[in-house]
Amino acid sequence: MLAFGRIVAASFRQYSTYRVATVAGVFTNSIFGLIRASILLAAISTAGGELRGYDALQAATYVWLGQALLAPIEAFGTREVAERVHEGDIAVDLLRPMGFLRLHYARKLGRSAFLLLARGIPPMLVGALLTGITLPTDPLSWLLGLLAVVLAITVAFLADLIVNLTAFWLVQTRGLTVVYTAVMNLLSGFLIPIAWFPDQLIALTRATPFPAMVQTPIDALSGRLTPLETLPQVGIQVAWAAVLTVGAWLLLRAGTRSLEVQGG
Amino acid sequence: MTTSNDPAIELRALRRDYVVRGRRRTTADAPHETPDDPSRTTATRGPRRDRAALGARIPRGVRGARRAQRIIRAVDDVSLRVDPGEAVGFVGANGAGKSTTIKMMTGILQPTAGHVRVLGRRPVPERRRLSREIGVVFGQRSQLWWDLPLRDSFRILGAMHRLPESARTARLSRLVEGLDLQDFLDRPVRQLSLGQRMRGEVAAALLHSPRLVILDEPTIGLDMISKEGLRRFLREDREERGTTLFLTTHDMSDVERLCERIVVVNSGTVAFDGPLAGFRESLGAPRELIIDLAEPQERLTLPAGVSTLAVEAEGIRHRIAFHGSEMTVPRLLAAVGEQAEIADLSLAEPAIEDLVREIYARGR
Predict the structure, then answer these.
(1) Does the keyword DNA damage apply (chain A) (predicted)?
(2) Whole-angstrom Cα distance, residue A195 to residue A201?
(3) String of DSSP letters for B116-133
(4) Using N-to-C axis directions, what is the helix angle for A80-87 and A139-165, rounded to 10°?
């Protein structure tokens, strides 16, 4: 546990050294947030002030919360683990006296904590100033909301890790990452709220882990769901985290068995 | 736990095959394990293709276009027993099977066949438990946290190995002193020079005081001073703690300075295994005695089996070749001393590089 905590802290400190990247990230996040907010607001105003349960303020809140989650869930995918497999550095990870999944989860939590604070919160402040946002007032919503954020980060981490672990069998995982992030960005409810999808697509989407990555924490934190309504959603997040953990673990086990560590 | 009589490393008839699929031929081959010797290819499945064709992409699902598969035997019948406290140099050319053997010993690679025990454990199923008892340095990889000060890596590793804080600080101060890390402990690892980083890597591998230390090319790319510093500390640490040392290297002076025993691998098999001291003699390579005489002398009458290689400096310097098994230096000196006054002398041992080359030449 101490090792886990120290890795989380180290990973947080590590990312805090990338100052220029952080500033650039906040800037682009804010700009894209503004663009997305104007599109959604235009759509809502065309629809007569409300679109499938979203009014202007709720839509703006949805956009800015989404922008805040973008960095910590790493919605554009990661390549680190795949690169470690391809370059053989996975040998070093496997020789640590700590499980591979635990090790990388600890790193992810530290990284995401920094990304949420440094890249997620500032664009939200920009949004609050420019378009206004609405956040819950009761502490229970906040508590469940933050739990939903941690679980969203966990589910996104596991799904992304599974894509990365295919590097054991694929020479190049970039194509798969592109497909995965495209599907994930849509089905997670990051681009437009899931409630705006056609009905059949909503049903299909609900059967995937993707809403657990973005839509659930946004709903919990924007007050669209009451604490009582949030609970089952959090339960679904936990279930997906469990399923994906087993999946990632099986994939890792199969991968290390077929491993041909490359390079000296 | 193992008792002191158990071997630290036990390999019996160890073998490892790599399946090389056609499409992956160019990228998937380990650069350090790629045997260029075509005789190493022991089996071919699927259509045989030449190298250029192997690199070409064969579309999947095209009927009849099965992907070429070749099996490369990286390690073939390696047997080895290392007792606790021994220091073994494991040498061989690129692609001889050194790194593959180490990866099987540490549980990263599953052997194709054969028996491996390291500190009494089966490496693959007990990999993590084993990792608490062994220290491994891969000279070409890093286990340090790249963007953080070197000191932070030791904090994390200490926690991973569940070292009590007092034990960790005591051990770390020994490592800092012995490896001279003080000046750059607070610098991010990415800013360290190669020599500094390698010292950091060795400290990271030794932090938990492992009983077995496995070093895969620890001095690669280092300058003479860094190499010497690293070797000095490895010797000291071994003397203090009685650890077992298993070392692969391209630098024979690593073996000479650190090991008592040398194992030479060639084409995935053990070509020589024995004490370093006997290594030269058993190979029969001649030693060379260089004698400077007080007065020039055209030629010396030498005992049987001893020959003059060269006479230099107008008869002052004589280079004499002899075999350690047939002649000792004192006897030779006595024989020369009867004929001339000796002003100075030096003894040149055959370089291990030459000896390994000779083993390779014989093996062909």
Answers:
(1) no
(2) 10
(3) EEETTB-TTTTHHHHHTT
(4) 30
Residues A139-176: b if buried by 16+ CB within 10 A, e if exposed:
eebeebbebbbbbbbbbbbbbbbbbbbbbbebeebeeb
State both tokens at B233. Answer: 């500390």
The letter for the amino acid at B250 is H
Dist CA B343 CA B313 (whole Å): 14
Considering chain B, what percentage of its residues have pLDDT values greater than 70? 81
The alpha carbon dihedral of B42, B47, B53, B57 has a sign of negative
Strands (E), chain B: 9-21, 41-45, 69-82, 87-91, 113-118, 134-138, 212-216, 244-249, 261-266, 269-275, 287-293, 307-312, 317-322, 342-348
Mind listing the pLDDT tens digit for each residue in B202-215?
999 999 999 999 99
Paired tokens of B282: 């058993």
Distance separating alpha carbons of residues B44 and B57, to the nearest angstrom: 18
Place of tokens 């890390």: B181
Does A95 lie at the interface with B, CB-CB under 8 angstroms?
yes
Q: Give me the percent of chain B exceeding a pLDDT of 90.
A: 44
Chain B contact for A255 (CB, 8 A cutoff): no
Residue linked to tokens 């809140």? A61
How do residues A113-155 score in pLDDT, each as one tens digit?
999 999 999 999 999 999 999 999 889 999 999 999 999 999 9
d(CA A162, CA A250): 10
Strand partners, B149: B188
Amino acid at B208: H
CA distance A157 to A57: 30
Question: Tell me, what's the pLDDT at B50?
Answer: 34
Rounded to two decimals, the pTM is 0.82
